[in-house]
Amino acid sequence: xxxxxxxxxxxxxxxxxxxxxxxxxxxxxxxxxxxxxxxxxxxxxxxxxxxxxxxxxxxxxxxxxx
Length: 66
Known about the structure:
Layout: E1 2-8, E2 14-19, E3 38-40, H1 46-54
């Protein structure tokens, strides 16, 4: 099992999740803002982070599925 660091797509809070080899990992709800959209930290540049956070939350779903 591999550990992956993901970031909340609403507030940027990082979280480590365990991957069991599947393409989708349920990281659950963000403990800071309760949003449920996550992206792998390694897949996000600073530009991508800013662009995601500038979008309305309802338009962020599916951008970077985790």
